[in-house]
Amino acid sequence: MTIKNAFFLFSLSLVFILSTPVTAGKLYRWVDENGKVSFSDKVPPKHSRKEHSQLNESGRVIAIKDAAKTPKQIELLKRINALQQVQQKLLDEQLADDSALLKTFQSSTDIDTLAASKTDMVKSHIAIASGQSETLKKQLLSHQKVAANFERKGKKIPQKTLDNIESSQTQFDKNQREISAFKLQKKQITEQLIKDKKRFITLSTQSTGKPSIHQETVPSLVLGELSCTKSNCSILWEKAQAFIKQQGNVVVYTSSKLVLSKTPKLGRDRGLSLTMLTKSEHSQIMLDIRCADSAAGKTTCKSAKNDQIVQKFQQLSL
Fold first, then answer.
1. For the chain, is the Cβ count within 10 Å smaller at the N or the C terminus?
2. Which has more pLDDT, 269 or 230?
3. Beta bridge partners of 147
4. pTM of the complete model beyond 0.90
């Protein structure tokens, strides 16, 4: 039998099935292990746990019943669901911070002004503490010289002199700790300034709509994972963001720990997300892929291209 004749018979059988009274109810389509396509108003028990489609009266797929998942797929789905919960938490926290930032500042210049005011105040504290440091240091040296004189004469150092040395040393050490704390505070103000300005600029160029973690979509059962350390995570994070855009995805939300692309609407679309999971000195950058919750979308999420995307993602750390 030629391919043309086989296709003709297949089409004829489909037309016949769809024209029978069974179409008043449900009609299903499935493919067995030998590639044979079958249609019926009921799915045989041996095929019920395998993927099958429900058709309408025009023969169009209106729903797809997924095949029963393997233990490995079930475990992977648990990881994906757990990841989505982390994404939601990160998103909620960042949205709260963003809201506070936008309520506090009208422009990046406002951020500079406030940071400069705080820095000047800390600098003043450092200057005062540094002046006190010189006085305390002289007092300590003076008491130490008195003690040295007693030692040179072979006499016992009086308890009062020892108490003075201990008291002066304690005050001097406290003063040095205060100076260190003020310097750390100044550094933190500068770092916060850089962080707030960067975030403010990002928000000014980002979509004004409330971002979503694609809960209305279906996941592809593949995950990308990159390991990084504190020294190289920021570089790898930038490379991962560039990778998302290289796949043709429109990024609608970006933060230091979460990147979301546009929610997939069409069957051929894919939504890619990045999540930074921080664990002490080591972190993981996770890539997950989601598709539209439709028959075509589910097919896209099962495509081998998803594996190819993950494989390319994994190579970013090389």
1. C
2. 269
3. none
4. no
- Note whether 212 and 263 are within 8 A (CB): yes
What's the pLDDT score for residue 281?
77
Q: What is the pLDDT of residues 108-138, one digit of tens each?
A: 999 999 999 999 999 999 999 999 999 999 9
Mean pLDDT throughout 40-54? 69
SS in 3 state form for the chain?
A: CCHHHHHHHHHHHHHHHHHCHHHHCCEEEEECCCCCEEEECCCCHHHHCCCEEEECCCCCEEEEECCCCCHHHHHHHHHHHHHHHHHHHHHHHHHHHHHHHHHHCCCHHHHHHHHHHHHHHHHHHHHHHHHHHHHHHHHHHHHHHHHHHHHHCCCCCCHHHHHHHHHHHHHHHHHHHHHHHHHHHHHHHHHHHHHHHHHHHHHHHCCCCCCCCCCCEEEEEEEEEEEEECCCHHHHHHHHHHHHHHCCCCEEEECCCEEEECCCCCCCCEEEEEEEEEECCEEEEEEEEEEECCHHHHHHHCCHHHHHHHHHHHHHHC
CB 249 within 8 A of CB 273: no
Task: Please give the CATH architecture assigned to the domain spanning 73-99+213-317.
Answer: 2-Layer Sandwich (3.30)
Q: What is the pLDDT of residue 311?
A: 94
Average pLDDT, rounded, for the chain: 84
What does the alpha-carbon distance between residue 39 and residue 41 come to, in Å, rounded to a whole number? Answer: 7
Work out whether the CA dihedral 111, 116, 122, 125 comes out positive or negative.
negative
Report the distance separating Cα 299 and Cα 283, nearest Å: 32
